[in-house]
Amino acid sequence: MARADPLARYNAKRDFKLTPEPAGKVEKGAGNRFIVQKHDATRLHYDFRLEIDGVLKSWAVTKGPSADPADKRLAVRTEDHPMSYADFEGVIPKGEYGGGTVMLWDRGTWAPIAGKSAKDIEKGHLHFTLDGDRMKGEWLLVRMKPRPGEKRENWLLRKVDDAFAGGTDDLVGRRLTSVLTDRTMADIAADKGGEQSLQGAKGAAFAKKMAAAAAHNKQVAKPVAKPKASGKPPKFRPLQLATLVDAVPTGNGWFHEIKYDGYRAEIAASGGDVRVFTRNGLDWTDKFAPLVRHIAALDLPPCLIDGEIVAYGKDGNPDFSALQAVLKRGHGAQDEATALHLFAFDLIEQDGKSLAKLGNLERKERLEALLRGARPPIAVADHVIGAGETLYAAMCGAGQEGIISKRADAAYSGRRSKNWVKVKCTRRQEFILVGWNPSSAKGRAFASLLLAQREKGKLVYKGNVGTGFDAAMMADLAKKFAARERKTAPVDVDAAVARKVHWLKPDLVAEIAFAEFTAGGSVRHASFLGLRRDKEAKEVTPEKQQPAPEPASDVTISSRDRVIFPEAKATKGDLADYYAAIAPVMLPHMARRPISLVRCPQGRAKKCFFQKHDSGSFGDHVHHIPIREKDGGHEDYLYVDDADGILACVQMGTIEFHGWGSHAGALEKPDRMVFDLDPDEGLAFADVKKAAADIRRQLADIGLVSFAMLSGGKGVHVVVPLDPGHDWDAHKDFSKRFAEALSLAEPDRYVATMSKAKRKGKIFIDYLRNQRGSTAIMPYSARARENAPVAVPVGWDALADIESAGAWTIRDAAALLERAGSAELKGWGFAGQKLPAL
C-alpha cells in the first residue's frame, strides 16, 4: 500500500497561483534543520518547524518561544510543510490561507538528546537540543491531553533549565529582525529589500494611515535596521580597582556581586574585531582566542567591557588553578569542561562615548541591555541591591573567594577607591617569588618557595609556601626558575633562612592563600594557587584591610511625622525612607535629566505646585543647568545625580519627579520617547493594557523595542529608549505621526488629540511629552494621589496580570527592589536603537 502523502494537507490548503509560498513535495534534506517563522496572520504567532523524514513538522507557538524554563508556551500542531518552506519569507495575500507577513526569525540545527529519537513525537514527548541563531540548548515539546470535542492537537514548548536558559533574554521582544535579510516585519510587508520602510507596520493599511497623518510631508518614516558594527574597538582604559575592607557595606546605596576567581579583563570590541586586555593593558587576545570567537559572534557595537575571565574547577566553582591549567594546555585542549568563561560586570564605553561618569548601576543596566542576547560562555554577573551580608555568607559557605560591593551611584574612576570594595572569605594576596629551597624527596623539584612584597619601594621577606603544588606545576616552575637563578639575594633575610636558598630574579608573581600574618610579618599556613601572569612584580604591595564604608547622607529630613498622604497615613519620613531605599534603581533612569517637581509641602491633599526652576534653595546636592527658553532667555533648571539629590528635593516637600526626554549633557538630543495611554473615565484598565500591547507590537514591526510602565495613576506608559542622534523636531514629529496613525487606524479606540469632547470612550495616546521642555513621570516616582502609589516598570508578560496602574505604593520599596533585580526587568528601559529616519 502506498504511503499517504505527508504534504497533502499543505497543498490542499493553498492556491499556488495566488500565494508566493512554495508548492509542497517531500525532499531529502540534511536531516536536522529547524526554523522558526514569525507569522502575522489572523493573530501574531511563531511557526516552529523541525525537519523530520523529508518534511518540516510544524507547530504554531502563540506567544513565541521563551528562554525561561518557567514559561510553558502553547504550541498548536499544524500541517507538515515542505523543506523548501525553510527559506520562505514574504507576504501571503489577504484572503488566502495564513494570509499575512512571514519573517524567517530563527534557523539552525536540531537533534534528539541521547537515547531519544524523532519518533518520540508519536509518543507525545520530544526532548531535543537546538543550535540556532537565537534558540539554543535543550527544549521539550509535550502533547497535552485533548479535551472532549477538541479537534486541534495542543502541545507545550518549554526550555529546559540548562546553560542557555534564563529569563533575562526576552527572545521575541528584542529579536525584531529577520535572520535571513535583517528586515523588520514592516519591511517584509512592504516587500522592501535593502531599503528600509515603515510601510506594512500593520500591513500596508497602517503605512497609509501614517502617511495620512503626515500629509504635510510626502515621505514616510524609514526604520533603520541595526547597523553592522563599524569602527575600531576602543583603546584600553585604566581599570577601576577595589579596596579591601573588613566588612560588607550596608544599606541600599550598595549593590553586591560575586568576586570571581580568575583574570580581570577589559574587552574592547567592534563587531568581529575583539581585543582582550589584562588589568595592565597587555594584549592577551591570542591567549583567550576561544572566548574571543564567542564575543565576536555577538557583533557588538564599538564598546569597552570590564569583566573577569574564569575556568571552572572540579567542584563546579570558578577556580584560579583551573584557569592556569586551561591556559597552559592551550586552545586545542579546551572542551566544554575546561572552557574559558567571561563574567562581564561593567560597560565603560559604547558607540564612541564614555559612560564612566554614569553611576555604577546605570552602567550595569546598559551592559545588561547590550549583552541580553549573550549565551554561555559569556554572561553578565548577577548582583543584589542591599543584602550584601547574605550574599557574602553564601559565597563563603560555598568555598568562594568573597564579594565585590559597589556604590550604586558612583562613577567609574579608573583607579582604586572605596566606591568599589572587596570582602574576602579567606586571606589571599599576590607575592613575588624571590627564591626556592631544595627538596630531599624524590621527584620533588623544591621544598618551598620564598615570598616577598614591595614596601616603600623595597622588597620585604614574607615567609615561605610549601603546599598547593602538583607534579606538573612543580615541573613548570622549575623550568622558569632555571632561567631566573641569581647568586645574590634580592631581599634581606636572616642567615638561617638563606642557608640553602637558590635565589631568583624577582619578576614572578604568585597568588597565595594563607591563614594569617605572624607577628613578624610572615604568612602562616600558606598554599600556592598559581602564577599571576597578568600582574607585574612592581605592583605587588601588602593589601591591608580598611574599615567598611559607613552609609551616610548629608541630607536631614525635618518634620518626619508630618502626614503627606492622609488616606494611607503615610508621613514625610515614610516618603523619604521610600526614596532612600529606591534611589539605586531610580537613578539609572532619572540621573542627569532636567527634572520638574510636584511639591506638596503640607501634604498631597493641600496646595501642590509644579516647579522646574531654582535659585539655589535646594542645597548643594541639587544641581542647575541653564536652558534656553522659547523667549530666547535662559533659566536654571534642576537635575540630580545621586540619592542625596533626591532626598534634598523630598526635604523641600517634593512628592513627584518628572524628567525630560534628554540628558543635561545633550539637551537637544532626546533619547527617550514616551507614549502615555490616558483612558477615558468609563474605560477599564484591561482596555489600557490591550492598547499598550498593540503599541508595543506596532513599534516592534518597525524594529523598535519598547517597555511598559505603570503610571501610578490611571494609565500605562510605553517607553522607547533611543540613541541620541536626532533632534527634538524629528522626535516630536515621529511620535505625533505614530499616535495619529493609530487613531486613524482604529478611531473607535484611540484619539491623538487632547480635546475632551473627542475622547469619550477612547484612549488618548499622549505624544506631547516628546517635545522639548515637556516631561514624563520618572520610573519609581511616587504620585501625589490617594494611597501614595508609585510609577513602576513592569515586564510585558507581567503586565497582563496586573489589575491597576497604582498596584504598588511607597510601602512596597523592598518588593520593588527585589523585582528590579528579577529576570524580567534586567536592562529595563535600555536598548541601542535609532529613531526611524525621515
TrEMBL record:
Residues 536-555 are annotated as: Disordered. Residues 251-424 form the ATP-dependent DNA ligase family profile domain. Residues 443-535 form the DNA ligase ATP-dependent C-terminal domain. CDD domains: Adenylation_DNA_ligase_LigD_LigC (cd07906), OBF_DNA_ligase_LigD (cd07971), PaeLigD_Pol_like (cd04862). Pfam families: DNA_ligase_A_C, DNA_ligase_A_M, LigD_N, LigD_Prim-Pol. Its cofactor is Mn(2+). Residues 37-143 form the DNA ligase D 3'-phosphoesterase domain. This is DNA ligase (ATP). The lineage of its organism: Bacteria, Pseudomonadati, Pseudomonadota, Alphaproteobacteria, Sphingomonadales.
